[in-house]
Design goal:
Helix content: over 70%
Order of helices and strands: HHHHHHHHHEEHHHHH
Radius of gyration: 22 Å
Oligomer: single chain
Number of strands: 2
Strand order of the largest sheet: 1-2
Shape: globular
Number of helices: 14
Length: 396
């Protein structure tokens, strides 16, 4: 909430401060709330995937409502007021959480990573404190150098630096999980399965997360948004996907429970997610071929794309959250949930690189390439389903 209010402030100083605070807030919230949901269910509870689908409805209710008022205020009045309105919504979310948290029972009371000895817990706390202090010191040094004119901080510089950081963090964590000391053979195998899911998820998110970039540009520049004489803001397309999620998530929750023993494994569900991501961009190839000739295309092309992407999200995202809670070693459960969100970060970075080609590459080529990568990744993952299931050691 504080981060959103900072974005409403004047100047680039408030802008970057708001982004930093939002990053911290997201890091504190997203991995932990997902771990709490996992703690509600016992290890062998077949309702876990369905539970995460229901949890996903709650997430997407906010994503469904927010683009309408915030997008309208941002595009038609002032983006600063749009961010301020988002801060009001975040504050309301904080209040309802404080009032309703008691209904979670014991879930989340004990940290998810406290499965080891007291010495291990103390060591991890020291490591976390050291990492936070190092990150803060680095930020202060960079800020001082920028203020002195020694280095230039731009959005592109920050993006490239964080891209390198994502690679370093990913390699370091998986090297530790697969080759570090203190892990059992079963934990190493499950970590290898997590690596397969991580890479698949990164490809999926690189396509899916273009909803706010290349797809939004396509909505603004190439889509007919006129409804009975009213031209709605391009940002309103952002509520279409959450609408599909809220509508379809109960059906997916029912499906996973109804299938029981015939339920597809997590890697198989991920493969379906990649297929739907590719199908969403494949739909836009003929639409963009029309758009490059100067015509505005029907909004139903984008709606169809968002439908496919929503189906893919429901096959992959809540299932991935559930898989992390089942596969992660108990003593690093919270950190592994954070690692799941690193896959989204990797996907966001790759998707941003793709979007940077929006002006220089023809749209049919751009969208077709994204679709092809997703389809190829789906085929590769299908081939890896059985080996990955064996690595999961009985976890479905």
């Amino acid at each position: 909430a504080i981060g959103q209010f900072c974005l409403a402030g004047p100047g680039t100083g408030f802008f970057y401060a708001g982004l930093v605070v939002l990053v911290v807030g997201t890091g504190l919230l997203k991995p932990n709330v997902s771990t709490i949901v996992g703690q509600i269910y016992s290890r062998g509870d077949a309702r876990r995937d369905a539970g995460f689908s229901i949890f996903y409805i709650g997430i997407n209710l906010g994503a469904l409502i927010a683009p309408l008022p915030c997008g309208w205020v941002g595009e038609r009045i002032s983006w600063r007021l749009g961010f301020a309105l988002a801060g009001v919504g975040m504050t309301a979310g904080l209040i309802q959480y404080m009032l309703g948290g008691k209904y979670l029972g014991p879930a989340g009371v004990v940290p998810g990573g406290s499965g080891g000895s007291a010495e291990e817990t103390r060591k991890r706390k020291h490591q976390a404190a050291f990492g936070a202090a190092a990150a803060l010191a680095l930020a202060v040094v960079c800020g001082a150098l920028a203020a002195a004119g020694k280095i230039e901080i731009t959005a592109q510089t920050i993006s490239n630096t964080l891209g390198v950081a994502l690679v370093i963090v990913t390699v370091a964590i998986f090297s530790w999980l697969l080759m570090g000391k203190g892990w059992s053979a079963e934990e190493r195998k499950r970590s290898a399965a997590i690596l397969v899911l991580f890479l698949a998820a990164s490809v999926f998110w690189s396509a899916f997360e273009q909803a706010g970039s290349s797809l939004n540009l396509f909505a603004e520049r190439s889509t007919n948004r006129d409804v009975l004489g009213f031209v709605f803001p391009a940002s309103w397309f952002q509520f279409v996907q959450p609408l599909f999620i809220v509508t379809l998530a109960p059906a997916f929750a029912w499906l996973w429970v109804a299938l029981k023993r015939r339920e597809p494994s997590s890697p198989a569900k991920f493969a379906w997610g990649l297929f739907f991501a590719g199908a969403g961009f494949a739909v836009l190839v003929p639409a963009s071929s029309i758009a490059v000739k100067g015509a505005l295309v029907s909004s139903w092309w984008l709606v169809c794309t968002y439908l496919f992407h929503s189906l893919g999200e429901l096959c992959l995202s809540p299932v991935g959250l559930s898989a992390m809670t089942k596969l992660a070693p108990a003593r690093v459960a919270g950190m592994m949930m954070g690692l799941w969100f690193v896959s989204i970060g990797v996907g966001d970075y790759l998707g941003g690189r793709v979007t940077s080609l929006y002006e220089s590459v023809s749209l049919p080529t751009l969208f077709g390439s994204v679709a092809a990568v997703a389809f190829v990744a789906a085929v590769v993952l299908i081939a890896l389903v059985r080996p990955t299931v064996r690595l999961m050691s009985g976890v479905k």
